Protein 1
Amino acid sequence: GYHRVVNENRKLYNMVQDLRGNIRVYCRVRPSFRAETKDVIEFIGEDGSLVILDPLKPRKEGRKVFQFNHVFGPTATQDDVFKETQPLIRSVMDGYNVCIFAYGQTGSGKTHTMIRSCASENGLNLPDATMHSVKSTADVLQLMKLGELNRAVSSTAINNRSSRSHSVLTIHVHGKDTSGSILRSCLHLVDLAGSERVDKSEVTGDRLKEAQYINKSLSCLGDVITALAQKNSHIPYRNSKLTLLLQDSLGGRAKTLMFAHVSPEVDFFGETVSTLKFAQRVSTVELGAARVNKESNEVMQLKEQIESLKKALANKE
Ligand code: ADP
Ligand code: MG
């Protein structure tokens, strides 16, 4: 009985979410790598609640409660994650822009989620970005592997490069719906750089510059989200390439899903709290209803008419 009520609640919740076009936040806790110590996760609720315990404080004061749209615990499988994400990915086919990004410290499971369970233009200068046409899931997975390889290759030159770079896979969808209207949409899969604070004593020179750059782009993302949450008239998309790239998918017309990744070990308590706080901030953002990028037949016909008139005019001159 309880589970049915919880499930019904979630269904209703999702319907409300759809209406509001809200940003969704899922939290994922990876399994512990250290079986010998007790981890900081006290409770994971089916309703998306998560309770963590500060190991250094008395039980009452050390208890922190967070609420998300869903929490995947250490035993959740890739299939579980995919099932919960699939409707959102499907809506790309209905003409919505969708952005799924993974946030969290290095080693918390971002790549694990993005690679296995989620299967430029506009004047932005991304010299190394490439575009490929794909025919199958296998093609996409191949490209994702290539991207991950490119991140890893640089790690010989700069230690741990893959944890300090963002990886963005964008899938552009062009199609026609049954009424003949043209649909254009895109799906961004963003595997963000590790969110951990950089210890300045450990890095110098170019590495420090790189780390600061990454921290800056993550804080720009936070600023954009805060501005959206406060419904500011100015949203500072232009402050970083990352937010500029994701602009169409972070605004009111898109559907956004954030995976907040946390490690359960006591050692990472500080980073875990800061990730969960960031995620909580993101989940309070309210956007307008998501909109389909659709041009009706009428608009298309008018455009064609304009084009042929333009041609006729040019021929006359
Ligand atoms: P990140 O991309 O955040 O740095 P990774 O995705 O590389 O972290 O994960 C770190 C390690 O933990 C990898 O070896 C990965 O396979 C493992 N891992 C992460 N999440 C899970 C999970 N949910 N279940 C099992 N192993 C996981
Ligand atoms: Mg990674």
Protein 2
Amino acid sequence: KEIAFIFDLDGVIVDTAKYHFLAWRNLANSLGFEFTEAHNELLKGVSRVRSLEILLEIGKVALTEDQKQSLLIKKNEEYLSYVNKMTADEILPGISNLLDYLDVNNIKYALGSASKNAPLILEKVGLLNRFSAIVDGNDVSKAKPDPEVFLIGAQKLQMKPENCIVVEDAIAGIEAANAANMVSIGIGDAELLKKATYILKDTTGFTNDFLKNLIN
Ligand code: G6P
Ligand code: MG
């Protein structure tokens, strides 16, 4: 049977969460409160605007719409200063092998990310032209856990949702894949991602054996 993959970006293909963290933490500090790694977990898979809302709730800070807009710009500028330094070395282990495996087996793959910076990041790490389709934060109106991002991905690949396999590190992303009636592979903590069809501790879990079993 014909299948396709749809990949989340942040936390699956590259670890940009650490750069989001630096930028959000500096923003929080400039507003006078602490922002921890645990707080950062709450922002994984969450849109930029919603992330700021959550951050402001953590700091119990109330701002006007104009102030929020300028903070969003500031945060993204700092984030992009890190992204602009990214290279192919930052592709997570196992991912290049996985993409090669899919190419060799004529299995198409798309990107399904909430990030508006997704094309730039893929370009930086040299993967932009390998995806058959890219769906990013500019293409969707409903954020994960809504299935929209993955359903558009399936459509662009001309695949039925039930024949798509989503790779995700965020709970919201697993929920989105499940809501889209797709197979889901969670990357990370088994307890956190227990709603996924399959769970791998990290991206090194994409061994050829795992892939053979999955696909056949
Ligand atoms: C991904 C990340 C989130 C990030 C979101 C928006 O889902 O996991 O942490 O907030 O993308 O990213 P952007 O690059 O548009 O700010
Ligand atoms: Mg992610």
Protein 3
Amino acid sequence: MTVKDIFESMDYGPAPESASEALGWLADRGGIAGHFINGQWGPLRDDFASNNPATGEKLAGVTKGTADEVALAVAAARKAQPKWAKDGQARARVLYAIARLMQKNARLLAVMETLDNGKPIRESRDIDVPLAIRHFYHHAGFAQLMETEMPNAESLGVCGQIIPWNFPLLMLAWKIAPALAMGNTVVLKPAEYTSLSAMVFCEICTAAGVPPGVVNIVTGDGETGAALVDADVDKIAFTGSTAVGRIIREQTAGSGKALSLELGGKSPYIVFDDADLDSAVEGLVDAIWFNQGQVCCAGSRLLVQEGIADRFYAKLKSRMDGLRIGDPMDKCIDVGAIVDPVQLAEITRMVDTNTSGETYQCAAPDGCFYPPTLITGLAPADTLMQEEIFGPVLVATTFRTPTEAVEIANNTRYGLAASVWTENINLALDIAPKLIAGIVWVNATNLMDAAAGFGGVRESGFGREGGWEGLMGYTRPKGKMAKLTAPTAFTTTDGTPADPLDRTAKLYIGGKQARPDGGYSDPVFNKSGKLLGHASIANRKDLRNAIEAMAAAKGWSKTTGHLRAQILYYIGENLSARSDEFATRINQLTGTKTGTKEVGDAINCLFTWAAWADKHDGAAKGVPIRGVALAMHEPVGNIAVLTDDTRPLMGLIEPLAPALAMGNRITAVASQPFPLAATDFYQVLETSDLPAGVANILTGSHADLAPHMAAHANIDAVWSFSTADVSHVIEAKSTSNLKRTWVNHGTARTWPSSIWRAQSTEVKTIWIPYGE
Ligand code: NAI
């Protein structure tokens, strides 16, 4: 080729990165990836192969971890944990040393990652590895600050961590750095396709002075992962498919293990007609062709405003024609290999079975490569608009108005991320809060940082990684849990003839008193057997009515904290005016003299949450770009609560007040043995300006209602403080929409306000770059 030829085509010449160092590194270690337990390698077996997807060649044999090997790793982690948790400064030094050594070995890590995963070396070198390093630096700081800035937090213990193959080293860093910073020890299982960069990481740990047992790696497949979920760990942190997330939710149900799930997505990429179209096209290259589209937050669903659609698609196709697809070790390559032929076959199947719209594809080399693909003209309900393809395939549709854009964007079971492209900041900031997603990028895409929360809502999972909010997933508040004992209702009558007047307390649904659907009620007696009244028995239909009422009251979530504060103060005042009556009622129900104190506590609680209603501020995160990442606190949505039945009034007020203060709608089931204080309370609500449907109160069997609450798709979170044994069923049934759950496993404690606030809100991170 002559210089003239080059000038004519303007093609890039090959710029290959050498694989020899990384291959030599593997050969020196016997060509086998396996366990790193208690600071030692082994056992190492060639149970299955890890291949280079770009060439099909075997890179190494991988050990498939058995349940016994997982148990050994967990035991090592357990033994090492107390000492590791003791000294934050020592942890900071070790994390800092890891970051430094990763920097020193950055090229080896990047090459290993690209060989094993197939991603372009440009990406592993410039994105995966630097971001992983940043995580360790940033979290070294959190380790240092834990003692002084988080004096009430303590580590969870041993964390089991299961990661996918799309960002093997970065996901390892996201999992290990915060866990270690907060004084936990870990057992991490890499994905079966990509175990090799974790091996390099283990050697870095040894060199950095990580004490034996603090970081343990167990290699293997889904069965090894399942054994880790079952092992004696205090938390499971999982990133991967929604299907496996569901299995893990069910498997850990009732175990008391903490759980965070970062799952799939089908993130919208919304382009308004006033957007900088060239930037929006360039953004798409990063949104859907970065890492071959194998990105959980990939901008895989393009929504373009109708008037510019043709022009935009034309620009996009011309940009696609310029994408360079091929050998990932070539520094000029934009799109590399798909991680494994199994994934390639799945992408191919999904695209080939689609019959809608128009498909535009680039050329791709033979082998484990899939061509960048654009499918336009799809309807929002088409399979490819709904299902995660997890490949370089962009699906597109058009919209007319901002309202329609939001509707289509939210028409998904996922809620991970979204991008909004417009030059109008008013429009961008109007749309961002309306999108149901954990992350929103304004005129940007796929921005991530250790200081900013990452994670989703709906079937994209729960929990956040990164930032102060991510640390909550690796700590718990100090303090002991007490065993709960169920109070018994007084059931014997003194024989006094029943009051001929009907004293059946109704349910409170949609701001109205409602008779129970089933028409049944239970008598409620005092200690000496006098009938106090009847309490309705709510069934599934009543619960559904309450859920409909919460949905109709969604305007509450958009009200200002100021307004919510006023209403909570007003509720507090109205309760205060009836203190004596409530105190007497509590004493009658429980047969104790605790009524006056309990009413005082309830009033104080309402005032406390009135105070918080307009003070649970978000944050502007100092991320290393020109711009900010805003951490916004949004309500969770519809919360269903089984209340603490030992305290007839406070059991209701304690969850109700923070839930309402943070803008949620709530359906609470009153204390089962002592229901009548809660039913009296709706008279307070009726006189307190609370909009209908924001708070609904049911009475009846906790055990009967729990599974229906957990399974209902329009409930976003279920809390249980009940003495009934319902924790297991709630967690197991919550897989329907992967709702958040907060259950007590038969124990009780006083939760600090930080926990109530965190449970009542979602953190949405809105990235707003500015300037050039
Ligand atoms: P996967 O969810 O099966 O694998 C992720 C990790 O979980 C791996 O380490 C795997 O060994 C482990 N695992 C599998 N079954 C398990 C079980 N029963 N218990 C515990 N651990 C288990 O994902 P896979 O099969 O690799 O990819 C399938 C699809 O999942 C992709 O096509 C994509 O749609 C989605 N996916 C989404 C990711 C995300 O970040 N959202 C990441 C990877 C895959």
Protein 4
Amino acid sequence: MSDEKKIESMQKDGQVFQPDESMQGQAWIKSMADYEAEHERAMNDPEGYWGERAKDLLSWFSDFDKVLEADYDKPEFKWFAGGKTNVSYNCLDRHLTNGRRNKAALIWQGEPEEDTRVYSYQMLHTEVCRFANVLKKKGVKRGDRVALYMPMIPELAIAMLACTRLGAPHSIVFAGFSSIALQSRIEDSEARVLITADAVLRAGKTIPLKPNADEALKDCPSVEQCIVVKRGGNDVDMVEGRDCWWHDEINAEDITSDCPCEEMDAEDPLFILYTSGSTGKPKGVLHTTGGYLTYAAHTTQYVFDVKDDDVYWCTADVGWITGHSYIVYGPLALGATSVMFEGVPSFPKPDRYWQIVDKFKVNIFYTAPTVIRALMREGEEWTKHYDLSSLRLLGSVGEPINPEAWLWYHKNIGGGRLPIVDTWWQTETGGIMISALPYATPLKPGSATRPLPGIAAKIVRRDGSPADPNEGGHLIIDKPWPGMLRNVWGDSERYKTTYFAGFPGAYESGDGARYDDDGYFWIMGRLDDVINVSGHRMGTAEIESALVAHEDVTEAAVVGMPHEVKGETIYAYVTLKAGVEPDDDMVKNLKIWVRKEIGPIATPEFIQFADGLPKTRSGKIMRRVLRKIVEGSGDFGDTSTLADPSVVTDLVEGNKDLV
Ligand code: 6R9
């Protein structure tokens, strides 16, 4: 093991990175004292605090009468009741008269290098108005749902903003989902219109998309119209009377035609986004107008410390909540410049992200740990081909970032000096909940640090009593916040039982976490990922992090395997670095390694080497599937969200050889 590696794996809880004092003067939150004061104020007077934030950040057609009405028993939460506003107005119209009219709103980089488009706020406004008029002609009105199944192209953002202009909630289905997944989501939301494209361009290939839409629409009686963007130029079947081309429709609209914004109530539905639960069909998470946008703008401003000159890039797909809040709504509400990228990090070469950073002189960069680990595997040479000196702030989201990945990111992308904000949140929370503030919070690699101002995050035991430092517990939020989900579409009962039944008077996140002695939060993963070995609670993330700290390991996933005596025993799936021999010695080494890193209790009983792990298309490891494999069950439940289903067959074979 190299010395450097040794040092990295010893750091763990120990190392603290202090904020860059020279940046504090310009920051929105300048110090821990600032943070503490703001948090305290928000805790003592939530209505005063959020009412002020909502007025500072958004433009309202008429003021709200009441900041919050909360009823945990029903449950029902109303933010900014009586207030009237419009999301499209806040993201576009108001910037036409506040000095940002000619500023780049969206910088789009297509998968082919030569495909770049830049929309100023004025240009984006024009396109959104034109497309809103198209939708109007198709009969879309306030309250109608519109389904979007599209690649990462500007038309996706345009369609979202056009929907919000009309007050028509959108329901975006990630373009990587299958026709079955699309069909069930459209059916659940009863969308009237579907917007899609002929194809998705991905890693140099043209992957037809329209056939999936056609397949789904065979069984979607609610959909009357389908609008198709030409992206791949491949042949598609158009159904007479139902399908039309985006360019034909929009070209029929006057280029100067306006489309007035609907005056929406703060609590009118804004969008539905489906997310998978631990059981049953996906839940349609409902977000509403005033609270969601306030919270998206608030968190974008504080966590990413966005300023008017910044070029900000979030690499998520708009099909996930991260793309909704941090590519489109948060940045545009603030009048920022947001980069949208159609491609993948590794094509044509594993330096594509850094090339884009250099090309647009990106200042703020937000990505996922799975991306960092994949790029780590390719080696740090790839980070050296471009000038990354424009960067001033890095972010991470989606899963716990293991300290090794954090340190790699910090050193190779952040030049050993940039803050990394590890942001914990969920589709349901609408925006970031626990995160460092980049120029205030001392950072500990692997910790999401502290709750944002106004967020009453707590760690409690099953009976609701507070957990002690270093004792794992349930992560709950025991005060409402403006970005919280307002319902599960069409299923209020599920809304109640999933989120508000477990801990009376609080929102249950379903995640496990612990505080350390400094009150920093360490997210341990979904609670169903916590293993109980002989009465000891072990976070899968902790063991995974230890495995990944080994110099020969790229990725690891740990699950509990039923065990007669211990209750559960630890089963680890491990992907090794290219060229490393997956033999018995390696198994032995890794067991000793984990034993040393965490302790004997954490030593995996089984280690299965795997070329790949089953992941969702957003890069989350599907531990549910891994658990089923170790249980010897052939029934993997809904696997429609798997990026590569063939991985599972290989793992089942490997498991048979091992156990
Ligand atoms: C934004 C997003 C939510 C789940 C969440 C948690 C995990 C997200 C994390 C994190 C540790 C972080 N998660 N961010 N775990 N540290 N910084 O990812 O939403 O797709 O709904 O997933 O992701 O387990 O409960 P969503």
